[in-house]
Amino acid sequence: MIRGSCLCGRVRFEIERAVGPFELCHCTRCRKVSGSAYLTWLTVRREDFRLLQGADLVKTYERPVSESPPPYRTSFCSLCGSQVPDPSNSEPVFEIPAGALDDDPLIRPDKHIYIEFKAPWESITDDLPQMTKKDIQASRNSSS
User: Fold this and answer.
1) CA-based angle 80:82:87, to the nearest 5?
2) Which residues fall within 8 angstroms of residue 12, CB to CB, at 6 or more apart?
3) Cα 42 to Cα 14: distance, rounded to the nearest angstrom
4) For a tag on the chain, would you pick the N or C end, based on fewer CB atoms within 10 A?
5) Max CA pair span of the chain
6) What is the pTM of this model?
7) What gap in Å lies between CA 22 and CA 125, rounded to an integer?
8) Domain with 64 in it: what CATH number?
9) pLDDT of 105-129, one tens digit each?
């Protein structure tokens, strides 16, 4: 079992396993939400996720659609502000902020995404694939 929590520990969750992808997102929205160079998103299956406590503390901010659906949605603990998974998400797979994990997810980041939006002070120095918005759209179109 992989446990996770917010900074104050009042929101707690667990996942049976992470299925990936494990993406490092450099888009401006994720950078602003994380306050860092990128946000680490880890994909899990709904059936493998359990919110253990703090559902009443989870708040969600939804930014309107800027280009195409869906809108940008982020969830956080209303006490400490830490990003946490969105317990109201009903998709069969969804992304959780990997920084909220307390345990090793046993998978590692597999790519950087939206690199054309990366912070001007950021240098990507690893060997992970680097995908632009155009690459991501092409990949989604080829898999549908």
Assistant:
1) 110
2) 3, 4, 5, 6, 51, 52, 53, 54
3) 13
4) C
5) 42
6) 0.87
7) 17
8) 2.170.150.70
9) 999 999 999 999 999 999 999 999 9
Give me the domain span that covers residue 16. Answer: 2-143
Q: Which amino acid is at 105?
A: P
DSSP code, position 126: S
Q: In angstroms, rounded to a whole number, what is the distance separating the alpha carbons of residues 47 and 101?
A: 18
Split into its structural domains, the chain has a count of: 1
6-62 residue pLDDT tens: 999 999 999 999 999 999 999 998 999 999 999 999 999 999 999 999 999 999 998
Q: Which residue is listed with tokens 């659609």? A: 65
